[in-house]
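Supplementary Data S3. Sequence and structure tokens for construct A.
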Amino acid sequence: MYLTGGRQFFDRLPVRLPTDPRVTFVNGILRVQCTSVDPAGKQSNSGVLEIPGASVNNIINGLVGSAKAIEDKLASLEDDNKKDTSKESKKKSKKK
């Protein structure tokens, strides 16, 4: 649905995502309220990530790809750790 000037209707209205109130889409900009956790475990606001509406798809896909790469790396490190642990236990059982 378009209004005069070619702007989409939802670009003119604030939209809160139902799953997270810290994410809004207003005036064609996706805003994500970011938080950090201090050493004591307390959360605090650390800033706002602002993504232009036209770039949301590319940025989200990039973040997802990065998260998957991290997950794969952590899984391979975990597998390597399990292999090393099993090798050490075999060596110990052979020494007995």
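Construct B, processed identically:
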Amino acid sequence: MKASNPYGVEVANLARARDTGSKAVFGPPTAEEISRLTFAKLRDIRIHAQELRNRFARLLNRGSSLE
């Protein structure tokens, strides 16, 4: 008796989608991929800039009487 897999069709579709996705890596990036990468890099830059602002503010406040 063969064990039934209720997800058999979905697994096959995901495997096929992964194969087409891995092949697309070797082609030029799509607009969506560029958009995601750009958004992620901008987010990282903003986070880093905020960390630098916070560090600078701590350095300025180091000698103040507020701390």
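The first helix runs from residue 8 to 24. Residues 31-67 form one domain.
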